[in-house]
Amino acid sequence: MALRKSLIFAFFGVFLVNSASARGAEVTGWSQLSPQQQSILAPAHNNWDKMQETQHRRLINAAKHYPELTPSQQARFQKRLPIWIQLPVSDRERARNNFKKYRSLPKSKNHHIRTHLEQAHAPNNNSTNLSPALNPPTQPQGQQHKSQ
Fold it and tell me: DSSP labels for 107-142?
């Protein structure tokens, strides 16, 4: 189940994965955000004081790029942000790592994974097993380790 959450948010990580190096003034309070940042990051308001500075910087960087998103991407960001914030740090880190792996794959493999995820998350599809496309077996079928 945690793997599924990580995979679902892997694409959300696109907005946050490269922001670890985001620089800027340290923000310690919600009131220090601009009105535009507060509007974009409103789902994080209740948890803001509980977050670490690293997460503040990542979210501020995501808010910086938010105006560049298409309306559908903005809607997806707003829908996923509250869920992302509630994920344990380890799950968010796993999602970022999965996204980095995805970005490093050849385009043909990226296309295969993206198609699989889109099909798996189509409104009429109840599939919950995403791992075969994202975690292909490391050994050929039929050659798994046998227990002794």
Answer: HHHHHHHHHHHHHHTSTT------HHHHS--SS-TT
- 10 Å CB burial of residue 95 (0-12, 13-18, 19+) is buried
Burial of residue 112 (number of CB atoms within 10 Å: 0-12, 13-18, 19+): middle
Amino acid at 90: S
Express each pLDDT in 12-53 by its tens digit.
554 554 444 444 455 568 999 999 999 999 999 998 998 889
Q: Classify residue 42 by its DSSP letter.
A: G
How far apart are alpha carbons 52 and 50 in whole angstroms? 7
Q: Closest Cα to residue 33, out of 71, 75, 70, 64?
A: 64
Global confidence as pTM: 0.57
**Residue carrying structure tokens 């997806």:** 76
Q: For 76, what's the count of Cα atoms within 13 Å in the CB-facing half-sphere?
A: 13
Closest listed residue to residue 116, CA positions, set 100, 103, 129, 98: 129
Return the beta strands (E) in the chain as ranges: none
Question: DSSP label at 41?
Answer: T
Rounded to 5 degrees, φ, ψ at 142 are: 85, -5
